[in-house]
Each structure stands twice: as structure tokens, then as C-alpha cells.
Amino acid sequence: MSGTDGVELAFYIKDKYWKKHNPNRQEFISFKPGYSETSFLAQILRAEYDVPFAHVIDTGVWPTLDAREHYEARALQQVRDLLKSNPNIGTIFMESMPWLQKFRPWSKWWWKGIRQLCDEYDCLMIVDDVMGGFGKTGKHKFTHINYNLFPDLVVSGKTLTGGYAPLSSVCVSEKVTHTVLKNFEFSHTWSPNMAGVGAANWINKCWPEDYLFNDVEYAFQKIINRFLISGDIKQGWQQGSICSMELVKPLQPLDLIHAGIIPSGHGSYYDSNHLTICAPIGCLEMENSYWDQLNERLDNAISSGNT
Hints:
- By secondary structure, this protein is α/β, with parallel strands linked by helices.
- The chain is built from nine helices and ten strands.
- It folds into two domains: 3-205, Type I PLP-dependent aspartate aminotransferase-like (Major domain) (Aspartate Aminotransferase, domain 2), CATH 3.40.640.10; 210-306, Aspartate Aminotransferase, domain 1.
- It has helices spanning 3-21, 40-45, 65-85, 108-120, 174-180, 194-205, 210-230, 253-258, 289-306; strands spanning 27-32, 54-58, 89-95, 124-128, 153-156, 169-172, 233-239, 242-247, 268-271, 274-278.
- The protein has a six-stranded mixed sheet with strand order 2-1-3-4-5-6, sandwiched between helices. The protein has a four-stranded antiparallel sheet with strand order 7-8-10-9, covered by helices on one side.
- α3 runs parallel beside α4.
- The longest helix is centred in the first third of the chain and has 21 residues, at 65-85.
């Protein structure tokens, strides 16, 4: 039903895999800050509980795009050091879109670095693509395809249905499938609801053309450049249908609401002077109407903050 279910199922499959190949390799690496849904497992993944089988690396929140490379390189070295020193680690778990603290997208070098470490140390790579994918992080339906690599397990959430109905899925690589297929215990716990399946089929059927995603990225870059020139933002970045901007002057949530932007709604988030906008997939074929309205609302919100 939910992304939480998907993450739980991915770890269930991971356990099945290692019980067959090497029962000692049940330990895993994850990263914080992170979210990864609302279960007790998710709390372990983000280091809210200290357990011996979970190794959680604090990647930090890079302050600028220029600093991202340093932060990622430091974290990747920590991953390598852990894998060298602990042969019982069999899995690396990462979110495709670390959005919890001021949306900070991973670079392609991070993705390739994690995949290479998994290959080198024979680990499973699990990607939580619940908040990403299906347009949020690029034109492809799964974020990793944007980087031309393939994890061993990928969790998707309600982006599968465009948010119309609850649904989650776990896509599994061939090597994992062959291992767990004969001893996987199917039950109603892992059964999807048909409303979600119907919504997912509709999203899949109506998926926009690739070039429209280029238009979205271009429109967001224009917004970023405009506010950089006006001096209203310090920096901004965009990926897929998501744009994040660090404002020079703070806004109040009411400033955004009065301008028609819900600060913690389906399409926008405001956190510590960072405004993140997620354009709905439906806007891709609306020509200029969505962008005209968004520009007007952003202007009204920022001018309220300046006064």
C-alpha cells in the first residue's frame, strides 16, 4: 500500500537472499539525514536507534552545489572503510532523493560510486525511490535509469499512481529473483489494492514525451536565474520536475499561503529559508499557463517577504 510497506518488503527480500548465500551478511549501511518512511525499520535506517547490525553514515547537508563533491567523496570513503573492516555487511541502502533537509540531490558520481562499491564488495544495492522517480528526478520513471545503472532492489511508492491512490512496489534484479523466487512466502500482506493498480496503469499509459521534461528543467532554470539576478535568492538547483531555492530574506508560511503556495503541500515545501517546488506531471502539457501562474505566485510571496 505505502512506501513504508515497500521498504519493509525490500529488506524482507534482502534477508531471504543472504540467508541462502551467506547468513552472516545481514548487516547493512544506510545514510542520514534521511526519511525512508514511518516504520521502526525506517527509524533504524536514519539512526534514531542504535542497533549493532545497522551502520548509519552521516553524509551532512552540503551548503552549496560546489561543496557537494567534497561531502559525497567523504561519505563514500566512509562506506569503503566500513566495507573493508566488516565482512558481515551485505547491503547498502540509499534514498534516491534526500529531501528531508532542504532537497539535496545526489550527483551522478555518488550513484556510480555506490554501485561500484556494491560490485567490489559483493553487496546488494537497495534504492528507496519512493520520493523520487516518475518525473521527480528526471524524464525516466525510475531515478537510477537517469544514471544508466541498475540497483538490485528499487522501492517505488505513490509516485507510481501520481498520488491518486496508495500503492508501492519493489523491483528486483535477476540475480535476486532467482535466489528468492522459490522460497518467497506470498500472502495478502504484500497484495496491492486494485484502485492503486488502476491509477498506476493510467499514469503509465499517459506518460509524457521525453522532450517535455526538458521544457520543465528549462522553465525552472529561468526562474532560478531570474531570482539570482534580482538578488532574491542566494542559490538554486533543479532536477527533473523539482526546483529548490535558498531565499535571501526569510518568508513566513502565511506569506506563501496568501500568494497561493501551500508550504507543506503536495507540490511545495518550505524549510529554513529553502523553498522547494515540485511541478505536477500534468503541467507538462499545459503550455505556459502553469508557469505563468507559478511565476506570479512566487513574485507575490517574495515581495511579501521583502516588505
